[in-house]
Each structure stands twice: as C-alpha cells, then as structure tokens.
Amino acid sequence: MGIGNAFETTKEIIAHYKKHAAAFSQIRLIAQTHIKNDDYCEEAEKELKSATAQIPMEDAKLVVSLQGRLHAEVLSVVLTSCFTLESYINSLGFFLLKEWDIIGLVSNSTKSATDAFIKAIDRMSTLSKWETIGKLKSDSGFDPASPPFQDLKILFRFRDDHVHDKLVEWDADRSRKHYNNKFPDPLGQFLVLSHGIFACDTYWAMIVKIHELVAVPTAEFHRHYNLKPWFDAEFETQVRQAATEYDKATKGSQAA
Questions:
Q1: Cβ–Cβ under 8 Å, residues 2 and 83
Q2: Rounded distance between C-alpha atoms, residue 11 and residue 187, angstroms
Q3: Cis amide prior to 229 (ω within 30 degrees)
Q4: Diameter of the chain by CA atoms?
Q5: Which one, of 234, 195, 230, 225, lies nearest residue 77 by Cα?
Q6: CA-based angle 68:73:77, to the nearest 5?
Q7: Which of 78, 98, 125, 190 is most buried by its number of CB atoms within 10 A?
Q8: What is the pTM of this model?
Q9: Alpha carbon distance 139, 213 (integer Å)
Q10: Alpha-carbon dihedral sign for residues 194, 83, 90, 143
Q11: Using one digit for the tens of pLDDT, what is the confidence trace for 146-191?
Q12: DSSP-assigned letter for residue 98
C-alpha cells in the first residue's frame, strides 16, 4: 500500500513536469550555465525569475506539496521495509528452530537448552539475526560485502539515522560515503520513488537469499500469503516504469 501511494503521487508530479517542461528546461539551463561559469549575479537572478514566471504560482505550490508528500510516503516505505525485515527474521528463526527443527535442537537437547538458544538469538541486533540464521545450514552464509546483505546494511544505516538521530558533522558527500548513493542526504534532499523500490528490492532479495541458505522453500513458510512488496507483476512493472519516467522528467532539476 505504501509503495502504491508513492506511485500515485509520482504520477501526479510527472504530469506537472510534463506540463511545464519547457520552463523547467530553461531554468535548468540558466542555473547550469551560471554555476559552470561561477558568475551567479543579479543578472542571473533576473533570468531565473523570468523563466519561473512561466509557471503559475498555484502549480508551483502544488508540486512543492506533492514533492513533500512523496518524500513522506517513500520514507514510510523504507521504514516499513526495515520493520518487516526485523519481523520476518524473528518469525523465520522460530519456524526453523522449533517447527522444522532444522539443526536438531529440539530433538537432541532439552527444552531449557532450546529456549536458551532461541533467547540468545532474540537478543541479537536485526542484522546479526540475519547473519546467524543464514549460517544454520551454510558454512559461508551471507557475504557482508555484497548484495543483498550489503544493501541491507545501507538500508538500516539510513533507518537508524532517522529513528536514532544524533548530531553528526555535516559532509557534502554523505550520500556517497554513508549510503553508497543508494539514498539522499537526510539534510535537504528528498526521497523519491526509486528509493522506495530499492528498499523493496532489498527486502525481497534478503528473503530469497535466506531461504536459499537454509534450504527451505519460501512456499513452506509463506503458505498462501503474498509477502512480496508488489500486488502482482503488472503493478511492479508500472511502478518501475514510473520511477524511470520520474527520473527522466526531473533530471537535473533538483541539482540546479
């Protein structure tokens, strides 16, 4: 539902960008020219005001509002993806250890020993749980330096910077250094649909990989439920197309 809301808002924003494409193109060109020449001055300000005057104030205000709404919707998707990943590994761990008895813990030890082992895992951080469960039937487990676990770390790093916010020294390259350009800088930059897709892709890739590592088919755990982030394949295709169209329509506008 969250990605669906962001999808609908994205389509509205795209429609407005297309409506005023000529004005946006002119604004970008003026800004890029003066930035390149490092000569922003009163004349540049006049040129920009003249170009922006082509866009009715009502439309401009609406797009600003929509952009803020999109950011909030995508942030909700990102945070929900993290919450779901935490819930998933908790449920899957119990399922594998107690119901499937995947390592013979129940059949080969006492109830108190089984409970103590499960409680020990329960006290771990979410990322540590994924690593630990991933090694129950695999010597190697997840590769922490490669996707999807590498993306999981980035996802939770971004989540922690919002949920457990603390004072940090501002860095112009924070997006690159902290999130490997998967997410924007939380200070002054907006989330867009493609960031929500990254969160959804990371969530689903982790699920596919964990079931591969423990050698338990997803169907055995999911049963008849659809735990994918998409309603169906058609909806997924539409969302990805909208994200590409948005990036194309707005390319350079935020930087300018």
A1: no
A2: 25
A3: no
A4: 81
A5: 195
A6: 145
A7: 78
A8: 0.90
A9: 9
A10: positive
A11: 999 999 999 999 999 988 877 877 777 889 999 999 999 988 899 9
A12: I
Pull the structure tokens for residue 89: 């590994």
The pLDDT of residue 41: 75
| Distance (Å, whole) CA 124 – CA 142 | 16
Domain segments of the chain as ranges = 72-241
Nearest residue to 211 (alpha-carbon basis) of 89, 99, 121: 89
- Tokens, residue 171: 């860095």
Structure tokens at 98: 């107690």
Q: Which residue has the tokens 């590498």?
A: 150
Phi-psi region of 101 (alpha: psi -120 to 50; beta: other; left: phi over 0): left
Q: Could you list the beta-strand ranges (E) of 34-84.
A: none
Residue owning tokens 């998409």: 230
Between 171 and 218, residue with greater pLDDT: 218
- Residue 55 corresponds to which tokens in the numbers above? 């866009």
The CA distance from 78 to 69, in Å, is 14
- 129 vs 118: CA distance, rounded Å: 11
| Cβ atoms of 121 and 132 closer than 8 Å | yes
Residue type, 238: Q
Angle between helices 2-19 and 233-250 (to 10 degrees): 40
Task: Please give the Cα distance from 183 to 200 (Å, whole number).
Answer: 13
